[in-house]
Fold:
Amino acid sequence: MDGTDVRALADDDLRAYRRDQVGLIPSEPRRAMNPVQRVAEYLLEGVRAAGGDVRTARARAVQWLGEGGVADPKRLMRQHPFQVFESELWVATVVEALLREPDLLLVDVPSAEVESGPRAAVAALLDQVRLDSARPGGAQSCGARARSGGAQSGGGVGVLRVFADLEPALAVCDRVVVMCGGRSVEAGNAETLRRAARHPYTRALLGVPPPHDRRIEPEAVVGEPAPSAAEAAGLGCPYVARCPIAIERCVDEMPEPVRYGGGEARCFRVAPEEEGSR
Ligand code: SF4
Structure:
């Protein structure tokens, strides 16, 4: 992150990094909140602790809750979590994270109880905040970051979203990393992956045949099979149990990334010079 290897940070530095530079929007908002605290206290706690401008933050919270699809933001802020629907609580966790002005926002897959309307409204809100934060002087700060000692990168907020499906990720993200069994198997810009993905797993998610043999009908990807002993030990390709073009070495060797066009794939059957078009 901005040249820092986060995995190498000592405990105290990692805690400070998470507090000052990263915002997390959890999958289950109710579990992230103190049930005896009103939503307003939850929203403003971080800004207040950092010595920021609470009045500006409160006004911005009302604005962002409204833009995120909350019908009556002021009412929501007076309520306790048990009085509020999951969708509105989820929007509140988004606004709380944004108010702390992070460099990086991690957005987990929202729970099934979060409705499609707030999901779409929040996606638009995040896009707007991301663009505003990248413009010089584009977003008026409420001071949470400047006073907490966070290193203002000046590059705006980066948004890292987790998706359970590939298509919505390709629709809204600039760059997409496809994970299988907890490991990255392909990465690239969305246009490249949509048009010319090369990893068999990515291609199965897209509903197109694997590379090398376009006659193989792609199978629907449903759930995860039980890992083999090699996979459980972190060896081998995580897709080997379902891959229609696997070879012997896939069982106990993990391929190195192979670069192609606008992406890279970890597969023994992908060659850098291969066209890989669908
Ligand atoms: S490395 Fe082997 S098992 Fe994994 S996707 Fe490529 S061909 Fe299939």
About this structure: DSSP finds twelve helices and seven strands in the chain. The longest strand covers residues 183-189.
